[in-house]
Structure formats: C-alpha cells, structure tokens
Amino acid sequence: MYDRFFKRIVDLCITLLALLIALPIIFLLGLLILLQDRKTPFFTQLRPGRNGRVFRLIKLRTMNTKRDSNGTLLADALRLTFLGYFIRKTSLDELPQLFNVLLGHMSIVGPRPLLVQYLSLYTAEQRRRHLLKPGITGWAQVNGRNAISWEEKFKLDVWYVDNQSFWLDMKIIWLTIRKVLVRESINQDGQATMEPFKGSVS
C-alpha cells in the first residue's frame, strides 16, 4: 500500500520542496562546469528502473572526456576534475535526479540505479532489488555506500525491498543528510569511483 500509493505523494512533496533549494545550486554548478570544460554540464546515462525498465538518469558531470592516443577514455581518476571532485565529495552531482523523481522514474529512497549491463550478472536474489523504483538514496547508501562490497550492497538493497516503510524512508533520508554533511563513504579506498560489478562468486 505504501509503495503503490502513499510513497509517490511523499516523493513529490519532498522533491518540490527540495527543488526550491536545489535549482539555484544546479544552475550555479552547471555554469561553472560549462565555463571549465565548454561542454554540457549534465551527464546522462541509461539505467534500469523498476522491473528493469530503462530510463535516462541525469547527474551533474564530474569528469572530462579526455582520451589517450588511441581514442580510449582515460581512467576515471585521471578524468575527475577538481570541481568534479568537490561536487562528488559533497554529493551535489545527484541533485538533477530530482527531475527523475518528478518524472516517476525514481523515488527519493530506493536501491540505487546501476548500469544496464549489470542486469545479466545478478543472481535471482540480487535481481529482486528491481522490484521497486530506484532511489536517489537508499539503505545501502547509509550503511557503507561505495565503501562496502557489491554483495553487501545488494543484500542491503534486497533487505530494503522486504522492509520498506514510511518511517524507514524518513530514517534513511535523515541518515543521508548526516552522511553528506560529514562526507562519509563516497568511494572505495584507493578508487575514484566504485569498481565495476563483474558478477557474484558462486
């Protein structure tokens, strides 16, 4: 009942209020990114949503598009800009996803939307994370985020699927705000971004 009806109302109320604060920040950061790289300040990518249905996720761009002599993109750590590091460290790159929530692709709280190519790598249990809309934040994000393994992250996602409630969502939102303020667990140790998921070990 909560997931099918009430949660959408909660999502819209929080999103509309959040956009009052977020829009000026998105505009300012977008302008700085544009001046820095002379390219679109937004990064879009196809991601699987509820039941694996694909949508286009939008974030603020934190990396440039520099390539090596063979035309291959450089490693993430080499393309992460100084401004991009700040934006990612403060999680401000996630703000444009509020528009994904308005469009109904995402919720404020839910399993994070990952890459489309991961769909074929999940176990049957891990695939259950797609029974709900993906979220801007989630149970895995407030319990380790990118500092925990993929397997641990998926277990937390599935736990949320089985236990979601209004009060749990409020707790996750509060914990997210606290973690963003103290800048915890943004990346894995020694990595600019999370290592790609290559499938679980049987």
Kindly state the percentage of residues in helix.
40-55%
Write down the secondary-structure element order: HEEHHHEEHH
Please list the strands of the largest sheet in the order they lie side by side. Answer: 1-2
Rg measurement, Å: 17 Å
Number of domains: 1
Indicate the structural class.
Answer: mainly alpha
- The global form is globular
Residues in β-strands, percent: 5-15%
Mean of pLDDT: 89
Count of helix runs? 6
Count all strands and give the number: 4
Low-confidence stretches: 187-191
Ends apart, CA distance between termini: 35 Å
Largest sheet: 2 strands, antiparallel
What does this structure look like?
There is one protein chain. By secondary structure, the chain is mostly helical. It has one domain (2-182). It contains six helices and four strands. The chain has helices spanning 2-37, 76-79, 82-89, 97-102, 150-163, 166-182, and strands at 42-48, 54-60, 107-109, 135-137. It has a two-stranded antiparallel ribbon with strand order 1-2. A two-stranded parallel sheet has the order 3-4. Strand 1 (42-48) and strand 2 form a beta hairpin. The N and C termini lie far apart (35 Å). Mean pLDDT is 89; it is low at 187-191.
